[in-house]
């Protein structure tokens, strides 16, 4: 078994290649070529019952594919205050022929971050945008940074509107974006301000309360919801789903269980069968869908084992001949 360090992994996986691999994984999954068990989740709470961390275990196998994977990814939200990384994890790659361990990818959560950002970029690109349009981001962590980097590069956007937990955090994040990326990022003081300044909005927080509500919406907006990947998390109020003309989910059952879509269904704001599958949208099976013009569209992403298989295979394929 080969053990691969984070430094090696980052040198071998490009963001653009990861996006292509994740797109193919979505389509393969929608066609029944990939099997993935329900994810296992461990939630950590403080003495007041507030969510302070989570650990996800996801896995997947693909028909006639050399490997299957088991991924462990953790996020402990208070780590930054202690000078520790918020995210960590690893990916175990095993042979589909004999069950032997092929590689242990000590990615420290980086591959999960990349495949999540790739999915966000794909979801954002469902809407046509002009170079003068604005990307809104709610959140200021590493995932927010990667989302901005990958989406602005993919859609050729330069303007970014940012909302963090405080104006200070928003301003600091904007300075980082402006210094390191080819964008002009501006801090905002409310979700409404972000929504009205933007054509596409990404939410990437561990929030347990809705951040965007119907009263925050402009006439037209494309929302990509990423943060609600565990039970109890919520970023998009059910009223927003009630107002939406299009709702897309990466996995129907998973989003029902712990996505914003599921919260909206339980609130009876939207019907349980009102969503479209991300993989089928990407493959053009829903040609009637129009993400442009007026109206609200939402993509609810909770993260698939299929994505983990895709990025891990992308990496292992590069050194498999030497194993």
TrEMBL record:
Source species: Marinomonas phaeophyticola
Q: Give the classification, highest ranks.
A: Bacteria, Pseudomonadati, Pseudomonadota, Gammaproteobacteria, Oceanospirillales
Write down what this protein is called. Answer: Ornithine cyclodeaminase family protein
Concerning Pfam families, the annotation shows:
OCD_Mu_crystall
Q: Which InterPro entries does the record associate with it?
A: NAD(P)-bd_dom_sf, ODC_Mu_crystall, ODC_N
Q: Which residues form a coiled coil?
A: none
